[in-house]
Automatic annotation (TrEMBL):
Pfam families for the chain: Big_5 (PF13205)
Name this protein carries in UniProt: Ig-like domain-containing protein
InterPro entries cross-referenced by the UniProt entry: CarboxyPept-like_regulatory, SbsA_Ig
Keywords: Membrane, Signal, Transmembrane, Transmembrane helix
Annotated transmembrane regions: 12-30
Lineage: Bacteria, Pseudomonadati, Bacteroidota, Sphingobacteriia, Sphingobacteriales
Length: 541
């Protein structure tokens, strides 16, 4: 028995030893955890030949980095200026990048190899942005530069990672198939600089693009440009570019669908002025349609009371001119879900003083049974309120009542109180709120001084995030008084409305038209609670 117990214990010991060796062996192979994430792009340690070499005659360039690298999108990102007839070849291994050059280099020429965003580290993908290698096949290097700044045309905020491109005048090809070989990206302040340029005339552009091919695609990209070519005889450091989205040259419906509630949605690639929607087939269902355009008139949602059609043809017009006709098809077995719900204009459960309660429904309303609409004031049912359709909004109703401060209100709309299009009904709708304290709000008075009464200006008030709060067109000196403004920081923004159409207009590259200018009053319009602030806004010429 002792002998058997000895063998048994030995077996346990052996099993235990193997198990512990396996556990610690596996543990020893694990990568240490923790520590800060690497956010640093690769650093150049050595270049052969050295950067900015003159009388260059090498066939290959070797660049060593401080960590393992890889190339991404090198066919899009990498370029040589001036262009080579035979492309350079890029290879990378571990920490080394090897560039093989063709035998067709011109004499006495400065070449710039621009890697864009092609070089990253292998683990975290940190990008070495705007890295360039420069050499000259002659005794001197081109040494001129162009620098400047790119900002958004509306917000005037600096634009990060906009691509600034310049083309020698004889090969301006922003719309062409050839990518710009002289380019760089803007930093977080919107600044850029292009170095080692030769004397020449250049066209200057900036684009904010989606696909990174450095070819302007009007449908998706933003654009900035200098109308006239710049003559580079000495360094230029004052280029100012305003980035904007062009209005599409040709109208197009970008989205069309029949929604789950039976409404039809159309989106356009342009803002329209006086849009019209007409059902041309079957024409007999056009008369009872209900339309709701967005504020910018770049999309529409509408309802047809007769959905018995298999397909419907819709004509889109603007100012009486036919733009496009589209066709939508529905299945005979398609079903739709229609429950009436209501959004409101409450802010964190509070109703702004001197403001009616506004309810915006998801479907057009045909009838409201007021016997099923209950308003409680501090738990006591009240009469004397009205609920009327908003004449300016197809989907909205406004509720008027002499609201009292410090009282708690509950609006209870019972099930089936509201009948909408297609005989749709509501489930119970409950809105709980109080009247906001008037002392939490303030008045902002702007004394507007215009420089030229023959011109038009749009005065806008925006919040800290540049969201529009108020707008009014003026062409003479005027005091604009805005009441019930919530405590916060606001700014005055002025649009120079050159064509006097009451809105900001974008630019156009083909005609050389820049976007309408915008100016921000530099003073912050900070507003404290229960306070009236008066400011003079002197609009500059």
């Amino acid at each position: 028995m002792a002998k058997n117990r000895k063998y048994k214990n030995s077996g346990y010991f052996l099993t235990y030893s193997v198990l512990m060796m396996f556990i610690f062996g596996c543990a020893s192979m694990r990568t240490p955890e923790g520590g800060p994430r690497d956010t640093t792009p690769p650093k150049v340690l050595k270049m052969e030949p050295k950067n900015f070499t003159t009388n260059f005659s090498a066939k290959k360039i070797f660049i060593d980095f401080d960590e393992y690298i890889k190339l991404q999108n090198e066919f899009k990102e990498f370029s040589v200026s001036p262009e080579l007839e035979t492309p350079a070849q890029l290879k990378y291994k571990l920490r080394r990048l090897e560039i093989t050059l063709p035998d067709t280099l011109e004499k006495n020429t400065t070449y710039t190899l621009n890697f864009g965003k092609a070089i990253t580290d292998i683990n975290e993908g940190n990008i070495l942005k705007n890295f360039t290698y420069v050499f000259s096949t002659g005794p001197t290097l081109d040494s001129l530069s162009i620098s400047g700044n790119v900002r958004d045309a509306i917000t005037l905020d600096p634009v990060l990672d906009a691509t600034v491109l310049i083309f020698p005048l004889e090969r301006d090809s922003l719309f062409g198939k050839k990518k710009a070989s002289i380019f760089t990206s803007t930093d977080s302040s919107g600044n850029f600089k292009l170095n080692n340029l030769k004397k020449d005339k250049y066209k200057v552009y900036a684009i904010k693009e989606n696909n990174g091919d450095r070819i302007y695609q009007q449908e998706n990209d933003q654009l900035a440009f200098i109308k006239e070519p710049v003559t580079l005889n000495s360094n230029i450091d004052s280029i100012k570019l305003l980035l904007f989205k062009e209005k599409a040259n040709n109208f197009r419906v970008t989205d069309r669908k029949i929604n789950s509630d039976g409404s039809i949605f159309l989106a356009f690639n342009q803002q329209l002025n006086k849009p019209e929607i007409t059902v041309t087939e079957p024409s007999n269902i056009d008369g009872n349609k209900l339309l709701q355009f967005t504020k910018n008139k770049d999309s529409v949602k509408f309802w047809l009371k007769d959905l018995s059609f298999d397909s419907v043809k819709i004509a889109i017009k603007d100012q009486g001119k036919l733009l496009e006709s589209v066709k939508l098809t529905r299945g005979k077995r398609d079903t739709y879900t229609r429950n009436i719900a209501a959004a409101d204009n409450l802010q964190s459960g509070k109703l702004k003083p001197s403001t009616p309660l506004k309810l915006t429904f998801n479907l057009p309303v045909e009838n409201i049974d007021m016997s099923k609409v209950l308003l409680l004031e501090d738990s006591i049912p009240r009469n004397g309120f009205t609920l009327k359709k908003d004449s300016a909004d197809l989907l909205s109703y406004v509720m008027e009542y002499p609201w009292k401060k410090q009282e708690k209100y509950i609006l209870n709309i019972k099930p089936d109180a509201i009948t909408g299009i297609f005989n749709s009904k509501n489930k119970e709708i409950i809105k709980s709120f109080t009247l906001a304290d008037a002392s939490d709000y303030s008045t902002l008075s702007l004394n507007i001084k215009v420089p030229d009464t023959s011109k038009n200006y749009i005065v806008e008030v925006v919040d800290e995030k540049k969201n529009l709060i108020y707008a009014e067109s003026v062409n003479k000196n005027k005091i604009i008084t805005l009441t019930n403004f919530k405590t916060g920081i606001y700014f005055a923004r002025i649009i120079y409305d050159d064509n006097k159409n009451g809105k900001w207009d974008t630019g156009n590259l083909k005609t050389g038209l820049q976007p309408e200018k915008i100016w921000y009053e530099p003073k912050e319009l900070s507003i404290r609670a229960n306070w009236k602030r008066e400011e003079i806004i002197n609009i500059p010429k």
